Input
Amino acid sequence: MNTLTPPAPALALPAEAVAIAPPAERSQVMSRLFGDAISALATVVTLALLVYAAKHVIDWAFIQSVWPGADGGACRAAGGACWAFLGEKMRQILFGIYPPAQQWRPAVVCVMLLALSAGSLPPRFWGRTLGVVWIVAMVGAVLLMRGGMLGLEAVPTASWGGLPVTLLLAVCALGLGFPFAIVLALGRRSELPVARMLSIALIELIRGLPLVSLLFIASILLPIMLPAGMSIDSVLRAGAALTVFSAAYLAEVIRGGLQAIPQGQGEASRALGLTWWQMTRLVVLPQAVRAVIAPLTNTAIVMIKNTSLVLIVGLFDLLSSGRVALTDPAWPTPYVETYLFIAGIYFAICFSLSRYAMWLERKYQRTAAR
Amino acid sequence: MNAPQPSAAVAIAGMHKWYGDFHALDDINLTVKDGERLVICGPSGSGKSTLIRCVNRLERHEQGSIVVNGVALTDDLRKIDQVRSDAGMVFQHFNLFPHLTVLENCTLAPMWVRKQSRADAEALAMQFLERVRIPEQAHKFPGQLSGGQQQRVAIARSLCMTPRIMLFDEPTSALDPEMVKEVLDTMASLAQDGMTMLCVTHEMGFARRVADRVVFMERGRIIETNTPDAFFDRPQHERTQAFLSQIVH
Output
């Protein structure tokens, strides 16, 4: 082709294209913003409002604000944000009413769970070893929080609070809920009538109940139903309720993935002599889960935020320990600052998860590319 | 494992299958000798695919008997597994596992069913991938290959289980025309090596070149069985004549 094309036009063509493209794009933006009188007016008014709002926010957050180091009186006197409150109450918000001298323990738990979560992201680390590490870490986290051994002061779960409770409940709900969800999803598609009916009944029952009522059932009805003298810890009960709830929702997402697998995949597996379990584990589930990464992430994010509902059964998660911190009479009640801080933590966790899921999806799409 | 007829790879007698009221296979009697290459042809819906899918129990037959390498197919799962690991199958739509590389597709069953080590399974897989002339694609994913390449991988994947019988279910029907030859050549070279083969195909040229016997089916019945020369040049049954007259070579 090159040998047939005269050199002059070949050079001229790209130069022309480069010369024309940029102004076309700029004029499009300008015409959208200022194309006619109404657009121009809307643009000017919107900009004015933005500038006005930004000025007030900056004024509140930076200029008239009280920075850490000051006390409650300074906050009352000032007109801006009371960041001093966050500095003072940071530990109470993060760790609740856990004994202050022992707060290194929940801090270690938080760092450990977050670090392990980050370390679990690359698919090449997935495997049996990682599962064992997680189980050891979760048991270790609970023991470290509880104490009463190895010279650690015992701290009842009633005194637990803040970020470690949120993280423990979220990991429990998703980590235990996911395998449970796989069993339910497979059960719902099973050819065995008993397994199918049980799965459908469980999924529909749990999906039909609001999470709040499920938490109430777990925290109030369960102790009544159990024989006298036997009791289950309140964190455990809440964890169980969240696990069951997330399992029912995750199961329906996974079922969607299972339905997307062509019949030929099962036929090829059987023709090769794989057993049903081998086929499910090696061929069907990996494909089914990859097909539903986006909705799975959605459910996971919803579940992480749902953990804040445990406050209704008397547990202090991150959100409710923030609310408790606000009741100190020595300080004004800077709701906005406190909730911004807590929202920041939730957002950091959920946004990271969402970005991670997008990365996973792209990675798997690349391998499937034609 | 003591085969009553050591020379029979597949022995089917008085076999019937129904889908609801539809009589899919009607009194099938067929014996395939060890090393024999059988081509099954016939119009669509005649039951040819169903027939070979009964041989490895992807479909359950309702009446009669099927004995594969001396193992009678019943509801006994161990016997079904035994037959399946001895009979490889190649599908119209390849059915490769899209989430695994070509090499992993080939090593999956040997590692999990035959309990081979990864090293052994990979060595064997590379040997068969060379055999179907695509060793350089071993680390690609199926979605990155052409249809013909995918079907050759599917053949290699089956061969990795060192089957005694190969079942081909319209292996070239989903391929672009220019890719049919590479797959048929692979199958022909397999036939040359003495593999027992049951092929459902519309490739009459292949049937003539490779088959020891050609079976013609219609409406769930075997109408005519003959050597390729006799089948194509002197078809006995009028239905066979009508079918052959409609096929453009």
About this structure: Strands of chain A lie at 161-162, 316-317.
